[in-house]
């Protein structure tokens, strides 16, 4: 699991990507076994074409010990016969995996819903955190207060802009 061009992001993203690469195969299999919903994890690999910053990409890969290599037009043609391969700027990452996000979300939701100590509250706006004795004890929402021993805030990719 990785952003499309992981070398263009900071170290925290690289660490998360590296961690997820080791966790997702097992997570996907476990979710399939426990929910019957296949998140469709596949290690499909990735062929990058027309990369302007391939030297930076290769440096990033060396620093992380991640397989990434420059490949020629014949390699590109072998993998993707219909692709027009520019000379010298194609890269191959053989370990990249992917999931089907909607199916992963469905499987995670089904697994959490089956857990007796988990309450999912969806489609509600959080207006603030409830603090008691120096710790977050819940959230104030448009559906009222939601108190909990532990909270997971899933605000999405754009939560930082709110």
Structural description of this entry:
The strands form 2 sheets. Strands 1-3-2 form a 3-stranded antiparallel beta sheet. A 3-stranded antiparallel beta sheet has the order 4-5-6, with no helix packed on it. Helix 1 (11-35) crosses helix 4 (101-113). The chain is α+β, with helices and mostly antiparallel strands. The protein has helices at residues 11-35, 54-64, 73-79, 101-113, and strands at 46-48, 69-71, 90-93, 126-132, 135-141, 144-147. The model has no long low-confidence stretch (mean pLDDT 87).
Explain briefly what this protein structure is:
This protein has 4 helices and 6 strands, in the order H-E-H-E-H-E-H-E-E-E.
Structural features:
162 residues; alpha+beta; three-stranded antiparallel β-sheet; 4 helices; 35% helix; elongated
Largest sheet: 3 strands, antiparallel
The total of helices stands at 4
Number of extended strands: 6
Question: Mean pLDDT score, rounded?
Answer: 87
User: Which ranges are low-confidence, i.e. pLDDT below 50, for 5 or more consecutive residues?
Assistant: none
Secondary-structure content class:
alpha+beta
- Largest sheet: spatial strand order: 1-3-2
* Helix fraction bin: 25-40%
Radius of gyration: 21 Å
Distance between the termini: 26 Å
User: In one word, what is the shape?
Assistant: elongated
Order of helices and strands: HEHEHEHEEE
Estimate what percentage of residues fall within beta strands. Answer: 15-25%
């Amino acid at each position: 699991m990785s952003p499309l061009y992981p070398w263009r992001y900071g170290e925290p993203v690289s660490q998360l990507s590296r961690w997820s690469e080791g966790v997702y195969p097992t997570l996907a299999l476990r979710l399939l076994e426990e929910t019957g919903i296949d998140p469709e994890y596949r290690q499909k690999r990735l062929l990058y074409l027309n990369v302007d910053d391939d030297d930076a990409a290769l440096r990033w890969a060396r620093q992380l010990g991640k397989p990434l290599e420059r490949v020629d037009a014949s390699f590109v043609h072998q993998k993707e016969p219909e692709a027009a391969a520019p000379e010298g700027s194609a890269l191959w990452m053989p370990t990249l995996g992917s999931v089907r996000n909607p199916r992963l979300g469905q499987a995670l939701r089904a697994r959490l819903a089956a857990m007796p100590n988990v309450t999912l509250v969806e489609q509600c706006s959080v207006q603030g955190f409830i603090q008691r004795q120096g710790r977050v004890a819940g959230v104030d929402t448009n559906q009222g207060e939601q108190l909990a021993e532990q909270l997971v805030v899933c605000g999405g990719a754009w939560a930082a802009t709110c």
